């Protein structure tokens, strides 16, 4: 299974989605804008103006050592240092080099604290936000970070030379206006509580990145191994053949004393080694070639993450709780294909997945079934629509399936009694017949006689392959007369095919978000359905969904956001665009015993970022 969603999501999650959020401070209808150190989307920031550090860091963590890690995703090589463009494969860890105007904390869902900016002022009408830059902020080449650099970054990312998702993410930001060398204002097309989030989360890089000595500029979409000029804590020290890369902590890093940076980025160096497949990656860890492994495969965790180094205590296995929304993982259907146009067909395919069998036979009962796009959060729709949801759904009734107004969908069960796979397949057969598919001449066929045949596209994943799951799914589909073929291709090739929507069905996990917003427009909006490289893999194109998405991004209160997200979840789940998979409420991490981590765990975090940003090497015993 490929654990990324698409271009922009996988490349700016670290910088943008974990960044600022707006709120009651500054967005209230006061008579004048005023500057603050932090803003919260709902309620108040957790940390006061004089806070020294976040609770989940160790402010006295020792510095030094080289952290060695393996591929953080399925990429086995890289061919560029620019994470913001569509073509090519970026090196892992480039997020260490870029910072934004604001940054979030890992124990709040929607609060922004100044990073490059030391003051944030939201206009009384909510149609603009002004950021004042910290005069100490410096790029890696020693130049000060200026408002012109911020404007350049914003305009470059919105241009056709950047990945197309940025134009979606920042589409409601009308312009960036330089007030003075350290002050920039972003004007918005509409007033929503998310706009300062997006402005504050823009990755900032120097105007000199890609500049030749003669003053000419390399086009942004052609930047390859030109080292970025960013303001982050690390620099690229060396790399080799697109398979290894080492970052060294910038000895002149400007942000060390900022409260949002105290206790973070404690390693002198971070080195990535990219292994050819999942098996080689796992065996290399057991051989001691790198320091930490985030295990996403239940079978590996139980059966393969074992050996003499685990027995001796040199390597430690531990499950860390997390409160992230788990995102949507599943088999995504491409409804641009005529085969999947009919919702009855899509529901029938959903009925053919036997999760209980998979969990028992393949996953050692470590997972729960995913039954929402916002599972494991209060944003998940349940039961029948509330009054708030109905206020959004009722005007769209003529465009929606009547089932949307009933009980929320439940994923099919097979554990007896009274459930069974046979009963689910009988129901699926009737749905397929209603959609014009009947069994004859040895296969399920439509009125033209065409057999029902499709392909699941997956990347070559070694130990994390979806092949056993797909094989079990295909066996069940065969009982309906459907032929399901499973095909694996290299990660780089699958990315190109997904960007071009050249697939029938694919296995994907959407990154989770704690406060849904503009990224949902990219994932499910009608406009993005026709934009190659967009996050809208399934090709959802519905005016009703577009209307609900508008309610999501324009929600003024937490209650309004919950109602809008519930409505969105309800409509999407009743659309059966995905055969949902499963999720876990813990991070499974194996690590070398020389690593230390804070005693207070964050709430909302990815394990990889937590390890690189807040862990450290223990001092050697004397």
UniProtKB/TrEMBL annotation:
Gene3D superfamilies according to UniProt: Dipeptide-binding Protein, Domain 3, Periplasmic binding protein-like II
Protein's GO biological process: microcin transport; peptide transport
Membrane-spanning segments: none
GO CC, alphabetical: ATP-binding cassette (ABC) transporter complex; outer membrane-bounded periplasmic space
Presence of keyword Signal: yes
GO MF term list: peptide transmembrane transporter activity
Region annotation (Disordered) ranges: 518-538
Taxonomy, superkingdom: Bacteria
Keywords from the named record: Signal
InterPro entries with a match to the protein in the record: Peptide/Ni-bd (IPR030678), SBP_5 (IPR039424), SBP_5_dom (IPR000914)
Ranges for domain Solute-binding protein family: 113-525
Protein name per the record: ABC transporter periplasmic substrate-binding protein
Taxonomic classification: Bacteria, Pseudomonadati, Pseudomonadota, Betaproteobacteria, Burkholderiales
């Amino acid at each position: 299974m490929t654990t990324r969603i698409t271009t922009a999501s996988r490349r700016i999650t670290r910088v943008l989605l974990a960044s600022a959020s707006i709120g009651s401070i500054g967005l209230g209808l006061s008579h004048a804008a005023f500057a603050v150190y932090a803003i919260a989307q709902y309620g108040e920031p957790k940390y006061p103006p004089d806070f020294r550090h976040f609770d989940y860091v160790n402010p006295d963590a020792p510095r030094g050592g080289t952290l060695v890690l393996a591929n953080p995703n399925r990429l086995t090589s890289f061919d560029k240092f620019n994470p913001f463009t569509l073509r090519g494969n970026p090196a892992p860890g480039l997020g260490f080099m870029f910072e934004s105007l604001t940054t979030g904390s890992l124990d709040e869902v929607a609060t922004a604290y100044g990073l490059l900016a030391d003051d944030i002022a939201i206009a009384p009408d909510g149609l603009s936000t002004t950021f004042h830059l910290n005069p100490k902020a410096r790029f890696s080449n020693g130049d000060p970070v200026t408002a012109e650099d911020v404007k350049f970054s914003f305009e470059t990312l919105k241009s056709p030379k950047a990945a197309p998702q940025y134009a979606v993410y920042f589409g409601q930001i009308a312009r960036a206006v330089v007030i003075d060398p350290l002050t920039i204002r972003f004007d918005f097309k509409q007033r929503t509580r998310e706009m300062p989030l997006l402005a504050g989360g823009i990755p900032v890089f120097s105007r000199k990145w890609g500049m030749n000595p003669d003053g000419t500029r390399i086009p942004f979409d052609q930047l390859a191994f030109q080292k970025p000029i960013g303001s982050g804590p690390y620099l690229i020290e060396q790399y080799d053949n697109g398979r290894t890369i080492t970052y060294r902590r910038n000895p002149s890093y400007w942000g060390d004393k900022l409260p949002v940076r105290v206790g973070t980025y404690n390693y002198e160096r971070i080195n990535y080694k990219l292994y050819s497949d999942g098996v080689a990656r796992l065996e290399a860890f057991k051989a001691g070639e790198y320091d930490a492994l985030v295990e996403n495969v239940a079978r590996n965790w139980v059966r393969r993450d074992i050996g003499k180094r685990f027995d001796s205590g040199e390597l430690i296995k531990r499950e860390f709780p997390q409160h992230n929304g788990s995102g949507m993982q599943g088999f995504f259907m491409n409804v641009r294909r005529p085969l999947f146009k009919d919702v009855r067909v899509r529901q029938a395919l959903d009925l053919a997945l036997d999760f209980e069998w998979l969990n028992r036979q393949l996953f050692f009962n470590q997972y729960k079934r995913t039954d929402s796009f916002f599972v494991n959060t209060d944003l998940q729709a349940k039961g029948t629509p509330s009054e708030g949801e109905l206020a959004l759904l009722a005007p769209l009734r003529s465009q929606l399936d009547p089932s949307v107004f009933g009980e929320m969908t439940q994923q099919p069960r097979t554990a007896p009694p009274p459930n069974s796979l046979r009963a689910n397949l009988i129901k699926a057969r009737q749905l397929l017949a209603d959609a014009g598919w009947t069994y004859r001449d040895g296969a399920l066929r439509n009125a033209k006689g065409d057999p029902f045949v499709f392909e699941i596209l997956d990347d070559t994943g070694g130990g994390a392959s979806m092949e056993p799951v797909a094989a079990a799914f295909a066996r069940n589909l065969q009982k309906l007369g459907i032929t399901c073929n499973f095909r694996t291709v290299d990660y780089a090739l699958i990315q190109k095919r997904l960007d071009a929507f050249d697939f029938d069905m694919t296995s994907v996990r959407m990154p989770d978000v704690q406060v849904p917003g503009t990224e949902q427009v990219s994932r499910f909006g009608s406009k993005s359905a026709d934009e190659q490289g967009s996050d809208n893999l399934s090709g959802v194109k519905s005016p009703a969904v577009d209307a609900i998405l508008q309610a999501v991004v324009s929600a003024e209160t937490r209650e309004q956001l919950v109602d809008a997200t519930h409505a969105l979840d309800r409509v999407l789940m009743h659309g059966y665009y995905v055969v949902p998979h499963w999720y876990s409420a813990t991070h499974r991490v194996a690590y070398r015993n020389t690593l230390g981590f804070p005693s207070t765990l964050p709430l909302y975090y990815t394990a990889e970022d937590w390890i690189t940003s807040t862990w450290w090497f223990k001092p050697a015993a004397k």
